[in-house]
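Predict structure. Chain length: 678.
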Amino acid sequence: MPNRLAHETSPYLLQHAENPVDWWPWSGEAFEEARRREVPVLLSVGYSSCHWCHVMASESFEDEAVAAYLNDHFVSVKVDREERPDVDAVYMEAVQAATGQGGWPMTVFLTPDAEPFYFGTYFPPAPRHGMPSFRQVLEGVRQAWADRREEVGEVAGKIVRDLAQREISHQGDEPPGEQELAQALLGLTREYDSQRGGFGGAPKFPPSMVLEYLLRHHARTGAEGALQMAQDTCERMARGGIYDQLGGGFARYSVDRDWIVPHFEKMLYDNALLCRVYAHLWRATGSDLARRVALETADFLVRELRTREGGFASALDADSDDGSGRHVEGAYYVWTPEQLRSVLGDEDGDLAVQYFGVTEEGTFEHGQSVLQLPQSEGVFDAEKVASVRDRLLTERSGRPAPGRDDKVVAAWNGLTIAALAETGAYFGRPDLVEAALGAADLLVRVHLDEHGRLARTSKDGRTGANAGVLEDYADVAEGFLALASVTGEGVWLDFAGLLLDHVLARFTDPDSGALYDTASDAEQLIRRPQDPTDNATPSGWTAAAGALLGHAAHTGSEAHRTAAERALGVVRTLGPRVPRFIGWGLAVAEALLDGPREVAVVGPSLTDERTTALHRTALLATAPGAVVAAGAADSDEFPLLADRPLVGGEPAAYICRNFTCDAPTTDPERLGAALNAR
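Prediction complete.
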């Protein structure tokens, strides 16, 4: 019989609905049950595309004996970390404080008051490499609960008190200035891998937020070193196995320092962020590689992750059926020389072997290779390579595909909306802008209630019972602001303002300007989560600062600009010390230091060719972080357009700072030159 998870919307929870474990979703009822039975709670946190989550489920949660022991002695609670990032953040902080490391699946034992007292991540079914088996852990926890419950309670209480003392001290410091941003750049330069691109060793993650900072720093200062780090890293990733050389899109990370072998799960947020980075890199350099990768990644997002309702699914799994009924990591993506020749014939097969760096020994496992581009593309016939790619992609599409997590997460859809809107505008792809509009429409129709409150997740057009957190409000506002600039539809500016009103009222400390990840009226956990540093996505704190600053540039709102400046005070402290982990805050600070820059484009209508030419020039030439408002001269949709007349009946563009504008121009070339000169 299915357990209680059968009624959930999360694909990850639904994967466990048939487990013999008597799972509960996170709820007050689960902890009431633990109090009634006087047993501890097992909290298991994971997500649907997590490889080791699937491994532990197969080894332990599907095992009848383990399940019976859990059901007899614990209340078992399963959480999708992507649905409840607040629950994940609070207990992951405890895990990392206690063990010095973290990861998923996260395994935490709690008192019936939700206080943690024992921690871990993955536990094997039998003792291994000095690690106890999961059954041994369960027996040890049960014994401690039965024999030393008072001691367990004291340990749990101390952990909660220690967590409370870790709250960030933020006194509304001044935002970072030139000195702090220069120190951050110097710190990144010291950590940069000049041979391979990126930062740090294996495993190596795409530094999306840091790349955005480097591009913005170059745009403001002309610093060639910043551009070189961004350009070299982007090229290394795009030529490596972390990038899908056939279908486009990036995997979560590389297990090696050289970007060759990925951990094959593909996440919506990575691809949204990187699509935007490569589009911005093309804008800065004109790189053909950056253009190709930006468009291929955008096409991957639309082709593989768009849902029937118009939103974007969260992820593709790393594992898939290898053709024998076994689920194997990377099976969908890897090739042998023999397979390439079988599909392409000997001549084209040999070309593919050489072009994609496929070896007899293999770059992955069992003689299989991940496709990469180890040589210069210029030495190969472009038409023949394109034909080879198309044929291999067609062949691969016949393989059993990785599972897809169809959950629509508001924050990640906000990032995707921004990426598709800008990429579509830069490269003349209205279909990508339409895809962004479709996702925005879903968020408004399904996720946004009549009070302007966001639901974090939905599936099949039905929202889960999970309130939006700070990153949802901030990233969706960022996406809506990008749509407003690209489409000239002021309604998206209005929706962004509605979301940011909630950020100011419900997520911001009015005294210090600090931000919290959960709203003031959200469910109370053992501590209110708060973190200004980036993880796989921009922190909600600095994403909110960026959206507030963008809204201020569009509207002239001093309240929003002041809130952004106060929020960025934390970047003044952390930027010089840990620049790799606060990249989005540094990127937002670059826009602030550059000063508000706005471009107003007015014309008879946005369908007028002359107006369109000025609008596209403005979008391409404005620095990252600046805003563009475009519309009819008599439009009241954008405050920036008020009192901006046509010039001699011709469409005109105005370059402004704080709503004070230079003399208008009617010539796209002059507009581009004026913007680039700044």
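Summary: The two ends are 66 Å apart (CA to CA).
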